[in-house]
Amino acid sequence: MRFYDRADAGKQLAEALSFLKGRADLLVLAVPRGGVVVGAQVARALDAPLDVIIARKIPAPGNPELAIGAVTADGALVLDNDLVERLGVSEQYIETATAREQAEIERRLRAYRNNRPPVQVAGKTVVLVDDGVATGATTLAAIRSLRRQPLRELILAVPVGPPETITLLEREVDRVVVLETPEPFWAVGVFYEQFEQTTDAEVIELLNEYARQKPVQA
Hints:
CATH architecture of the largest domain: 3-Layer(aba) Sandwich
Strand order of the largest sheet: 2-1-6-7-8
Order of helices and strands: HEHEEEEHHEHEHEH
Radius of gyration: 17 Å
Helix content: 25-40%
Number of helices: 7
CATH topology of the largest domain: Rossmann fold
Number of strands: 8
Strand content: 15-25%
Oligomer: single chain
CATH class of the largest domain: Alpha Beta
Largest sheet: 5 strands, parallel
């Protein structure tokens, strides 16, 4: 299966999640940037509130493309301990990098929410949506952040991901809904015809539009 773009993937994912429609406790949390495009389609189809959760990778020293872990706004930190040890990464570096990424998360959340308060997740059935997963590091950080709250249920919903990552994440959530688990995997963008980078402006526009149509209830 190939998805035309993120909106198309969101519509297909929404069909797979249709069993949730009508649930009064439902909440869709999308991972910016691209996941918000997917999540907006899911939230619209399920008639559910939409908000964002951000996890940022912790880059390896001198190699910003290589992630040694990921962190969320509330400090939920996932580290690849084997990689940290192999690269000899110091605790001081991890602390500094983590604080820097948390500050960037807070900046983005303020911009994305446009002064709207964050939605309350306690007691909700949360559908965590992204446009796909690869290593799963940032997704895992987001999941563990959410697990600090007393959720009714946590469902991970993604269009595509490698089998080994999906198996890893299945242990962390109540349910995974994934449309494709190809092997070999290569990269998320391979499974989209159109996979241009989503901008902050597009995320803000989508969230503002959705907030006008269906305000998030705390």
